[in-house]
């Protein structure tokens, strides 16, 4: 299918090449997550170190918003930015389960010892935030905003010094003990440690750490001796090593000033044996530790950064926290507003008209021609932000007008860019829209064309798989466009194989990822990352979807600027599916699934004059099987799935869009984004691959605030899936009766389906459920279920698998699996 190169670097085939990149992407993703965590810890250490340094050094250059391009940011600014990102409303679900929630608590705060001084005032001011309390004990002294940022992780991955635990639990306190950090290597340990003070107030020496407490009690150690050097020595002894004071920092201006507050101690296996020559090495090692090495290679910044005074930071933070709280409040209000709209069953449309949104008059004219006058909620909320040039991540229910919400800013972006780009021979692509399926790309291109009706010289084109590569190239050259709608695979082919095309992308101003969660999940991520890598960094990015799971929130940071806005028109905790769609589920044994589909369709056709039904099947081959069977049962039915040629898919898609009294049997290619107006019923046969798939499939009905109906047809063993959608209003429905006549009729139609299609359907079914974690884990059960499915499609015995396939699926020696000789 399609054009494009056949061989790739290293003589790999397209699929080998793709698989190789998928593997690399998975590794990269893991690395990035790990890096983010390390970065957080590193910044934390850097923050603590920096807070001990005098305000000095150079001014940080301005940041480009991505945080890594504009030069070094101050550690404090970085932590603040991270906290800002993760404290946004709805960001509670951003964390791993291990991270623990960001608690909103009304509990009274524990009484706190008031200490004068800017730093402590800062802490007290941040405490006003209604977020998590810092933990007691290790890391318990962290600033609340940081504890809230990751309350359970704090210093767990850093080997905390033993005296840390001791000092907090045995009564020795230090005003700065939360800053104690120790980086233990296998041979050498450098620590950054604040001076200790004896808790004079408590005066109870025996309650202190036993060794020193005993020393104090017996008079061997005078309290005045209990300075850091003594403690280092004790600590070194504890590790079976000797300690010698490090004098090297005396020479270093920065370090010696810091020494007022900090001590560096080196515990070496044989510190005495080290020669004077080592001094220099030690000094430079300490400097390294001080700057980057101590951050375990995470802090790559070489320059010491200008540090603000505590007061400045204090004021800064108090201000930004106030703003943050204000913003959260506004967003919560927004969510409540949306829920109010829906609970009252009010229209999806707002009172705001498009001509009040700052959109160009010719676009408004085109909108009016298309019948768009009033904005929908998502359009009203996001268009102004997008026009301001902000990066936006948008979550809004299916069928609520997200397409226009990003197409309009895309057009405005082109209009703005064209004002300053007049002398190009071939116009750059100013707006790029990426979406997961060809049907959706074609639909978005058509919608954009409608909106561009009154513009001469501005064009939109699509780049999708399933068409000839050379034809694409010719089309792009002869009919240049400023807006491009593309599926990732084909776009990447063009980027990698046509340098002139990459040049056209260098002028890009706006990138949109429609169905962003799908675009950023593993299937597409590699391609999307490579595409994003080839785009200019100075651009605006918009992410839209009806579902934004927490992993996607995290990964979205890869493409969005740090200061992006998250708009959730659904609202936290609100139902994510359209309110006017009735959702039912039926549990029927496999043997009766096809009969039940026919029964449900007949019933619906009898009830709805202008019926328009979509039947979703698990795989392309099961779709094909279902289509042939229903066609034989004399239903007015069409099919779309990935095994069909693109021209056929496009034709059927258009036919279904414009018709009623039609049934479309389809696979996941129609799950997302495609807009078929007036769908009255959606039937999902078998478990969707995840909750998001369920929501998007269901969203093909009940669009534009209309009513609709969704039925999920499960086998009894598939009921586990109901847990995933337990928060959605899905009701159990009684199974309609299937009489003997109907059963025989359906059985007859099953029989006529070609054997090769049945075999392919069995293989596809096995592959699909094998890939679903919960089911695929128990191979014996899976094979047993597959064999039941096999019977339900009229196969006497299960078709054999290729040895390679069986091996790959982990099914080779599973009883019930036949392997081809
Ligand atoms: N302001 C508007 N006025 C009238 N009709 C609108 C308006 N905005 C969108 N629509 C119509 O609403 C329908 C759904 O819009 P759209 O396809 O953009 O939804 P969506 O939110 O992108 O859905 P999905 O999540 O499934 O992708 C379309 O038929 C579209 O023409």
Automatic annotation (TrEMBL):
Residues 300-327 form a coiled coil. GO terms for molecular function: ATP binding; hydrolase activity; RNA binding; RNA helicase activity. A motif (Q motif) lies at residues 352-380. Residues 53-76, 97-142 are annotated as: Disordered. Residues 352-380 form the DEAD-box RNA helicase Q domain. Residues 383-566 form the Helicase ATP-binding domain. Keywords: ATP-binding, Coiled coil, Helicase, Hydrolase, Nucleotide-binding, RNA-binding. It catalyses: ATP + H2O = ADP + phosphate + H(+). Transmembrane segments: none annotated. It is an enzyme of class 3 (hydrolase). This is ATP-dependent RNA helicase. It comes from Leersia perrieri.
């Amino acid at each position: 299918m399609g054009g494009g190169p056949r061989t790739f670097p290293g003589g790999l085939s397209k699929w080998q090449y793709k698989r190789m990149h998928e593997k690399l992407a998975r590794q990269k993703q893991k690395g990035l997550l790990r890096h983010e965590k390390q970065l957080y810890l590193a910044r934390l250490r850097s923050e603590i170190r920096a807070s001990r340094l005098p305000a000095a050094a150079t001014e940080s250059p301005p940041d480009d918003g991505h945080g890594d391009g504009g030069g070094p940011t101050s550690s404090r600014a970085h932590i603040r930015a991270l906290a800002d990102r993760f404290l946004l409303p709805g960001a509670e679900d951003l964390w791993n389960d291990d991270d623990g929630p960001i608690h909103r608590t009304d509990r009274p705060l524990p009484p706190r010892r008031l200490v004068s001084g800017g730093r402590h005032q800062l802490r007290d001011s941040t405490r006003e935030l209604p977020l998590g309390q810092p933990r007691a004990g290790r890391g318990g002294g962290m600033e609340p905003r940081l504890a809230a940022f990751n309350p359970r992780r704090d210093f767990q991955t850093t080997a905390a010094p033993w005296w840390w635990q001791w000092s907090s639990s045995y009564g020795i306190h230090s005003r700065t003990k939360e800053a104690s950090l120790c980086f233990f290597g296998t041979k050498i340990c450098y620590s950054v440690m604040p001076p200790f003070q004896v808790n004079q107030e408590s005066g109870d020496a025996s309650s202190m750490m036993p060794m020193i407490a005993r020393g104090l009690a017996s008079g061997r150690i005078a309290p005045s001796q209990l300075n850091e050097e003594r403690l280092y020595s004790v600590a070194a002894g504890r590790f079976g090593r000797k300690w010698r004071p490090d004098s090297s920092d005396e020479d270093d201006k920065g370090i010696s000033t810091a020494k007022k507050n900090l001590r560096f101690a080196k515990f070496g296996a044989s510190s005495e044996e080290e020669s004077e020559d080592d001094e220099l090495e030690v000094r430079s090692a300490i400097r390294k530790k001080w700057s980057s090495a101590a951050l375990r290679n995470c802090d790559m910044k070489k320059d010491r950064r200008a540090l603000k005074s505590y007061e400045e930071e204090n004021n800064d933070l108090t201000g930004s926290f106030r703003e943050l709280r204000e913003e959260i409040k506004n967003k919560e209000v927004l969510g409540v507003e949306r829920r109010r709209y829906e609970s009252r069953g009010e229209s999806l449309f707002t009172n705001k008209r498009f001509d009040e949104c700052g959109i160009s008059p010719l676009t408004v004219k085109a909108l009016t021609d298309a019948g768009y006058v009033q904005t929908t909620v998502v359009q009203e909320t996001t268009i102004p932000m997008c026009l301001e040039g902000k990066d936006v991540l948008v979550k809004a229910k299916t069928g609520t007008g997200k397409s226009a919400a990003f197409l309009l800013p895309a057009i405005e972006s082109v209009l703005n860019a064209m004002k300053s780009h007049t002398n190009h021979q071939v116009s750059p692509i100013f707006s790029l829209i990426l979406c997961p399926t060809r049907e959706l790309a074609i639909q978005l291109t058509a919608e954009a064309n409608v909106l561009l009706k009154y513009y001469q010289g501005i064009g939109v084109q699509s780049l999708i798989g399933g068409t000839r590569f050379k034809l694409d190239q010719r089309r792009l050259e002869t009919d240049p466009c400023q807006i491009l709608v593309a599926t990732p695979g084909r776009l990447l082919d063009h980027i990698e194989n046509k340098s002139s095309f990459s040049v056209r992308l260098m002028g890009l101003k706006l990138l949109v990822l429609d169905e962003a969660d799908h675009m950023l999940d593993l299937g597409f991520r590699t391609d999307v990352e490579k595409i994003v890598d080839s785009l200019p960094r100075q651009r605006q990015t918009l992410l839209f979807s009806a579902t934004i799971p927490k992993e996607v929130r995290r990964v979205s940071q890869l493409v969005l600027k740090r200061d992006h806005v998250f708009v959730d028109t659904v609202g936290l905790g609100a139902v994510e599916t359209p309110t006017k769609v009735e959702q039912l589920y039926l549990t029927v044994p496999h043997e009766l699934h096809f009969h039940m589909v026919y029964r449900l369709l007949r019933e619906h056709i009898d009830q709805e004059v202008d019926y328009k039904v979509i039947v979703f099947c698990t795989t392309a081959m099961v779709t094909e099987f279902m289509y042939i069977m229903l066609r034989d049962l004399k239903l007015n039915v069409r099919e779309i799935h990935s095994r069909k040629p693109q021209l056929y898919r496009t034709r059927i898609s258009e036919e279904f869009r414009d018709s009623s009294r039609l049934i479309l049997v389809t696979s996941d290619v129609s799950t997302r984004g495609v807009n078929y107006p007036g769908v009255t019923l959606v039937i999902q046969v078998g478990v969707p691959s995840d909750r998001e798939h369920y929501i998007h499939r269901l969203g093909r009905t009940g669009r534009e605030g209309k009513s609709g109906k969704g039925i999920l047809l499960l086998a009894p063993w598939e009921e586990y899936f109901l847990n995933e959608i337990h928060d959605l209003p899905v009701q159990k429905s009684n199974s309609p009766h299937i009489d003997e006549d109907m059963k025989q009729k359906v059985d007859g139609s099953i029989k006529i389906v070609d054997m090769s299609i049945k075999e392919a359907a069995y293989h596809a079914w096995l592959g699909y459920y094998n890939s679903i974690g919960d089911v695929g884990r128990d191979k014996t059960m899976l094979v047993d279920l597959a064999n039941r499915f096999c019977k339900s499609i009229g196969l006497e015995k299960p078709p054999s698998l290729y040895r390679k396939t069986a091996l790959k699926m982990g099914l080779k020696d599973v009883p019930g699996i036949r392997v081809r000789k």
